[in-house]
Amino acid sequence: MDVKDSNGTLLNEGDSVTLIKDLKVKGSSTTLKRGTLVKNIRLTNNPAEVEGRAGGSVMVLKAEFLKKA
């Protein structure tokens, strides 16, 4: 299962990615800012999503809003 970022670059387990736009966090009042670095991502069963630690907690992020760092 291939997971690709917004530019079509292949993402692998353990890669670092940056956000390409501000994202509101569901269930919270916080916003993840554009350019936030998410290190050591984990791939999920869904090719459109990755899991990573951002904003102090682990969350699932859509690959379409990420760019490989």
From TrEMBL:
<dbReference type="InterPro" id="IPR013988">
    <property type="entry name" value="YjdM_C"/>
</dbReference>
<dbReference type="InterPro" id="IPR004624">
    <property type="entry name" value="YjdM"/>
</dbReference>
<protein>
    <submittedName>
        <fullName>Alkylphosphonate utilization protein</fullName>
    </submittedName>
</protein>
<dbReference type="Pfam" id="PF03831">
    <property type="entry name" value="YjdM"/>
</dbReference>
